[in-house]
């Protein structure tokens, strides 16, 4: 399978400087918060979100112009917002491990983790305001609101077997796709593209982000703890009902009482996992991810051919190939 880092080749130079720049943006005035942030930026995954921003920037700037300083700053802001949300997610989920490394709350405690997340959100808002583009400020401010909305919805629907696929997709947008869609459109806005193209790129980010979240949720049932960097099946254990569960409930009604009693009896969770595996839920979830990935590619039709446009297309294939 093609590595995701190879798909970032058109913006490799910009991404290589991202981590160092992020640490400078956070600043060293608060040593504990800085240490927490430094740990996070070192432990970050593969820089997917800032890469999408930079690839869209490269695909939309006028011929002969390179990626601007404002585009680079937008990529940094995007990663700061994403990182802040991860810190808060780990506190809410009482997670000790993320992507195979210790979480901020496990190393520094919940108080520092919450403050570190707040600090990153505040810093990202400050640098966002300094881009001096009201539309971009509105786009990314809405993202921060959506992240909170997604967490609230997830908390209120734990172990709720009446949750619909539509509700699940809405939650997936708030938790994951909002940042991708908002930052994708913001990159296009900074390039000065026509509103119609900016909206198409927003839709690319929306469909890409939803496909990404669906695949993540599917991997929670099909991948190993070592590959996930967190315990396999942890979403279901916490009552977070994702697409594989919701599809499985349609053909396996005996799954419902297990969930509703929150796996209180010995063997409940193992039985639930077996029922999901024995259903068509995993296959239907894979089909749903593929549908959104195809829609994401369709949204790139307005971009002229380029290596960065091709990288954006290839990223959708990479998301689906994570399943194999």
The CATH fourth-level homologous superfamily = Farnesyl Diphosphate Synthase
- Strands of the widest sheet, in order across it, are 1-2
- Helical percentage: over 70%
Radius of gyration (CA) equals 20 Å
Q: State the name of the first-level CATH class.
A: Mainly Alpha
Annotation, overall tally of beta strands: 2
In the CATH hierarchy, the third-tier topology is known as Farnesyl Diphosphate Synthase
Task: Please identify, by name, the CATH architecture.
Answer: Orthogonal Bundle
Explain the overall architecture:
- It is a single chain.
- The model has no long low-confidence stretch (mean pLDDT 89).
- The protein has a two-stranded antiparallel ribbon.
- Strand 1 (97-98) and strand 2 (101-102) form a beta hairpin.
- It has a single domain (4-321), classed as Farnesyl Diphosphate Synthase.
- The chain has 18 helices and two strands.
- It has helices spanning 4-7, 12-16, 18-26, 31-43, 48-60, 69-92, 104-108, 110-129, 134-156, 165-191, 195-222, 225-228, 234-237, 243-251, 255-260, 268-278, 281-298, 307-321, and strands at residues 97-98, 101-102.
- With 324 residues, it is mainly alpha-helical.
Summarize the structure.
The protein is mostly helical and 324 residues long.
Helix-strand blueprint:
Blueprint: H1 4-7, H2 12-16, H3 18-26, H4 31-43, H5 48-60, H6 69-92, E1 97-98, E2 101-102, H7 104-108, H8 110-129, H9 134-156, H10 165-191, H11 195-222, H12 225-228, H13 234-237, H14 243-251, H15 255-260, H16 268-278, H17 281-298, H18 307-321
Antiparallel strand pairs: 1-2
Helix pairs in contact: 3-4, 4-8, 5-6, 5-10, 5-18, 6-8, 6-9, 6-10, 8-9, 9-10, 10-11, 11-17, 14-17, 17-18
């Amino acid at each position: 399978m093609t590595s995701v880092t190879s798909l970032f080749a058109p913006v490799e130079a910009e991404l290589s400087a991202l981590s160092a720049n992020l640490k400078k943006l956070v600043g060293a005035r608060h040593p504990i918060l800085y240490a927490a942030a430094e740990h996070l930026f070192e432990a970050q995954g593969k820089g997917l979100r800032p890469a999408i921003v930079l690839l869209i920037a490269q695909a939309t700037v006028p011929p002969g112009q390179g990626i601007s300083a404002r585009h680079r700053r937008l990529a940094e802001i995007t990663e700061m917002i994403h990182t802040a949300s991860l810190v808060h997610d780990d506190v809410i989920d009482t997670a000790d491990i993320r992507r195979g490394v210790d979480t901020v709350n496990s190393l520094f405690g919940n108080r520092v983790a919450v403050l570190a997340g707040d600090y990153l959100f505040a810093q990202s808002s400050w640098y966002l305001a300094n881009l001096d583009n009201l539309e971009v400020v509105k786009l990314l401010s809405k993202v921060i609101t959506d992240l909170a909305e997604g967490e609230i919805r997830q908390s209120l629907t734990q172990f709720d077997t009446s949750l619909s696929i539509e509700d699940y997709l809405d939650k997936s947008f708030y938790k994951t796709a909002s940042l991708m869609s908002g930052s994708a459109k913001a990159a296009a806005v900074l390039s000065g593209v026509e509103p119609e193209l900016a909206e198409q790129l927003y839709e690319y980010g929306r469909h890409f982000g939803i496909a990404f979240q669906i695949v993540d949720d599917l991997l929670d049932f099909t991948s190993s703890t070592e590959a996930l960097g967190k315990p396999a099946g942890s979403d279901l254990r916490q009552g977070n009902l994702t697409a594989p569960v919701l599809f499985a409930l349609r053909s396996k009604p005996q799954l419902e009482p297990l969930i509703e009693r929150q796996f209180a009896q010995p063997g409940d969770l193992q039985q639930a996992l077996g029922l999901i595996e024995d259903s068509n839920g995993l296959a239907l979830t894979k089909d749903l991810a593929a549908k959104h990935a195809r829609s994401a590619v369709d949204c790139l039709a307005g971009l002229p051919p380029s290596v960065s446009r091709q990288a954006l297309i290839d990223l959708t294939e990479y998301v689906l190939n994570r399943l194999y």
